[in-house]
Every structure is written in C-alpha cells, then in structure tokens.
Amino acid sequence: xxxxxxxxxxxxxxxxxxxxxxxxxKKLQHLLQEVSRTFEVPGFRKGHIPRAFLESRFGKDFxxxxxxxxxxxxxxxxxxxxxxxxxxxxxxxxxxxFGEGKPFQFDIEVEIFPEVRLPDPLAIEVEAPTKRRITxxxxxxxxxxxxxxxxxxxxxxxxEASQANDVVAIRDDKGRTQEIQAREDGWMSELIGKKMxxxxxxxxxxxxxxxxxxxxxxxxxxxxxxxxxxSLGHANTDALQEEVDKQLKERAERDYxxxxxxxxxxxxxxxxxxQVPAQLVEELLQQDLEILRKNGHEATAEERDRxxxxxxRRVHRDRILRAVRAKENISYTDHEFDEFLKSxxxxxxxxxxxFRALLEREGQLERIRSDQETQRVLDHxxxxxxxxxxxxxxxxxxxxxxxHEEEGQED
Length: 411
Prior knowledge:
Layout: E1 2-9, E2 12-19, H1 21-38, H2 51-58, H3 64-82, E3 92-97, E4 104-111, E5 125-127, H4 136-149, E6 152-155, E7 167-172, E8 177-181, E9 199-203, E10 209-221, H5 225-231, H6 237-271, H7 278-294, H8 301-327, H9 334-347, H10 352-361, H11 365-384, E11 386-388, H12 396-410
Parallel strand pairs: 5-11
Antiparallel strand pairs: 1-2, 2-4, 3-4, 6-10, 7-8, 7-10, 9-10
Helix pairs in contact: 1-3, 4-6, 6-8, 6-11, 7-8, 9-10
C-alpha cells in the first residue's frame, strides 16, 4: 500500500491511497469463491461454479462494490495509523479508480485537530470568582428543603378536596397513572379543589388537552425541626444546623474551586484560539440534541445555536487541556488511578475489586479516569496562575440577606 498526505486546511487532510493490483485480484477471487459456495446451480458442484457463468448471470463487475468496501475497511485504518494522523471525526473514503489488474486508488478525507499554540511560558491571570456566603437565611432555606425531602404523605378522605401543594394521583383514559403536586401556578392549578373520583381536563404547556381522573389525594406533613434532626441522626437541632452549615460551606468551596478552574482554562482558550473541527462539533451537537429528545424536549433553532456554541467551546477546552498536559509533561499513572478507586470504594464501604468491576461493567471507568486526568491538569494550572482577589461590591441579594439577619437578631 502506498500513501501520500495532502494538507487541505488546518482541520482537513487528504490521504491518497494506492493498493497493488495483486491485492485487488486476490480480494476479487476470494469473494468469487464465497459466492460460488453460496449458490446452488444444477450441473455444478457447490463451490465450483465457473466464474464465466456467474459473470454472465450477474454482470462482469458484480463483485466490485463489495471488493472496494472490504479493501477500504482493511486499509483505511492502516493508512491513518501509518501517517500518524489523529482523526477528529469519522473519516470519509472516496473511490478514485478500481479495476481488476489495476491498482485500487481511493482518497480518505480526514478531519483533524489543529495545532494548539500555547503561550510560552504559560501566563495566566484571572480574577478570583465570588464565593457564595453562607447566611442564616440560606441555612434555614436548606433545612426547610430537608423537611420537604423527609415529609410524610397523608391520604385525604374521599370527600376532602385537594389543596395547594397536595400530591394528586391521576389516571388518563389509557390507564397510565402519575403523581403530580398540585400548584397554584400553571396548568397544575386545575387539580386544586378536586376530590377523589373527579374528572379534570388539563391543558399542558404545548396546548394539548388531557382528560384525567383523580385516584387519590395526599397532603404533605412536614416534620418539625426536632423530628428532622432525629431522623437524620443528630442529637439535637443545634447539631443539625451545624451540619447543614458545614455542608453548605463545603459545597461553596467546591463551587468556587470549579469556577476558578473554568476561569483559568477559559483564559488559555482566549490566548490560544483554534479552528474547531466543524464535523466533530456537528456530531457532538447531534448527540446532545438526541439526549434532549429522549427527555421529551425538541430544541428550538435558538437553543440549537446556543448549544452548538457550547459544544465548540467544550472541544476547544479539551484541546487546550491536552496541549497543556503534553507541554508540562503531566502524568497520571495506573497506580494513582488504582489508589483513587480504592479510596472511593472505602467511602462507599465497598470491596475495591467489586467496585472497579461495577464501574467497568457500567462503562464508567474510562470516563472517571479521564475526569481525574483533567483534574490533575487543572490543579497544575491553578498552581501557575496569578489569581487576583477583588473586594468587589456585595450584590443586592447579599445585602438583603444581611439586613434580614440583622432584623432577626434585633427581634
């Protein structure tokens, strides 16, 4: 096999491939033998049907298309590997010339990743993101949400009408059942004031009218603070509030660190612009749109455009991370990954071997390793970056929360 590479653009490469005539002839003979073994023709033994007979019946070139396809499947990957090309998307083959006794010529159109030119040395300067303040109001809101999560559903009597925030069991004319919370806003408000056995016409957001019957109504009974603390394993309400405060601060720190890393990465993205492979972006976009469809949402043209920009940014970030890893010689060994998995297994009180096998069976292992490798690169960039801490002005929301707390203390 002979190959020559032609660079068409930063993201497009063309590989010219030529396969020797003897390889073409051998492939055609092999296919002919397979066809001969498949057909039963009176007067001929299976596998011994003359070529002339098959060609007279099916045409002289009846095996050409199959031969081309198989030869391309066999030689396309080799051509890409031999020329050290990293495809960004699925390569496309185009037949140039084919015939028995002649070289088989075809071209491979390959979309590639453009070279990333990082600044040298890596100079990164970003403003520190704002870390969320943990106020008494936020702690109280979180506790109220916990109450809802640990609420008890109490069935209402058959003659008792539903009220706002009740959970209503409905059944449509096809027998499909669903539990919905009756709310005062939107089409779900039609469920308020109804009793078990009542029929209701609901109009959804897409103007579709559905007739349903109420199979049951339940009111939500929230636990008081002491009950909630006990159910969550805390000695008293003070211990519950301390735990909520601790978890909120930990979450705020994680969010801050994530925002900082994205800011640093995007700083490099802006410093090292690249032409993102268009076909790859389109393929990834279609995958994201399909996920939305499976979740019952068809994206509008505006949403599609925004999503396409987001996908392009995602690809750009990934190439920057790869370039930084190569430039800075950042490694993440198998041993380090094994230790990470052991640590995660211990957190879950799981056997490390079984935990790894579970992740592998669910197809999560490679993704998790990739995430850890990415985190290693981001941690390295944080160490290089100059992070400017700005005092900044407090938002109206923060000022309002502080005033609310001060008023509460005065009371």
